[in-house]
Amino acid sequence: METWNDAYSVGVREMDEQHKRLLGYIGALGELLVTRDDELMHELLARITDYGRQHFEAEERLLAQYGYPLEGQQCAHESYTEWMAEANFSAIGGTLALRDIYDYLRRWWTTHILGEDMQYKDFLNRRGVS
Ligand SMILES: [Fe+2]
Q: Which of 18, 35, 72, 106 could pair with 55 as two cysteines, CB 3.0-4.6 Å apart?
């Protein structure tokens, strides 16, 4: 499920590439459920957080550039960022299981890409962005 496939394409190559990379990181995190490497887990969580932030900025910048209504996206991005800040903190304290973080990330990203992100596909494609 965390593997990117064409059904996840939002019709904008740059965004697809970024989503692919994020799903790749989440897939790598899923592998840690078996291998249990704490150091790598913290490294990956930091990367998912940082790269997620970069992606949100790039996405919001692109959408703003074409006058797409940003509220829904900003709201979703903010709640994710808050959850991840908490998750990073809890993971360090060992109070939140990797399984829960992984499940949340997998669910959040697929729901977000297929939901809010998919909604800008036609809007941007009609304006020549692809
Ligand atoms: Fe996105």
A: 18
